[in-house]
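Tokens for chain A. Residues wanted.
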């Protein structure tokens, strides 16, 4: 099922056009300027507010979403660059009423304080664990260094990733698949 959303004002003289997006398994036709940021389209046109505006420069990671399974800073990504690609936001990570193992682990370890960075952290962690099912502490730190947590919960984030890796391994052995992966 495709949804068509209303026109947004053109940006810097760019003409509005229909951009086809596939977000969380749903096809959307958005009438917008192809120059708009993916973040603004997700939040303003599709009402998906999990990705947050932080620095606006792709440095803090609050706006992170997955595009074809890779973490992308949606604040600096033009919506035209991701047309027809598979976009996953935090809202689309849980499947069949079950949280993704990374989401479960973040809750178990009580990672969140303010929670502003959490969606971006979780999506970056999902991408890491898909690529490296048993990451070392160094791999975790390297992968997550583009995600800023102002509350400083980094030790809990590392602990949550270790737990999530175990959960995902267990699901794999049981023949199940981690939601959203």
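Reply:
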């Amino acid at each position: 099922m495709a949804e068509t959303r209303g026109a947004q004002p053109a940006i810097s003289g760019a003409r509005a056009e229909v951009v086809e997006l596939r977000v969380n398994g749903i096809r959307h036709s958005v009438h917008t300027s192809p120059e708009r940021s993916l973040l603004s389209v997700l939040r303003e046109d599709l009402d998906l507010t999990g990705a947050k505006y932080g620095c606006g420069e792709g440095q803090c990671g609050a706006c992170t979403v997955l595009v074809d399974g890779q973490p992308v800073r949606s604040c600096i990504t033009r919506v035209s660059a991701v047309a027809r690609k598979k976009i996953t936001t935090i809202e689309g990570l849980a499947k069949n009423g079950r949280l993704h193992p990374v989401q479960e682990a973040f809750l178990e370890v009580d990672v969140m304080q303010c929670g502003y960075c959490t969606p971006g952290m979780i999506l970056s962690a999902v991408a890491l664990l898909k690529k490296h099912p048993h990451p070392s502490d160094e791999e975790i730190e390297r992968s997550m260094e583009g995600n800023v947590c102002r509350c400083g919960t980094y030790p809990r984030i590392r602990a949550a990733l270790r737990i999530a890796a175990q959960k995902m391994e267990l699901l794999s052995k049981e023949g199940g698949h981690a939601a959203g992966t």
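The longest helix spans residues 154-173. The chain has two domains: 2-92, 101-173.
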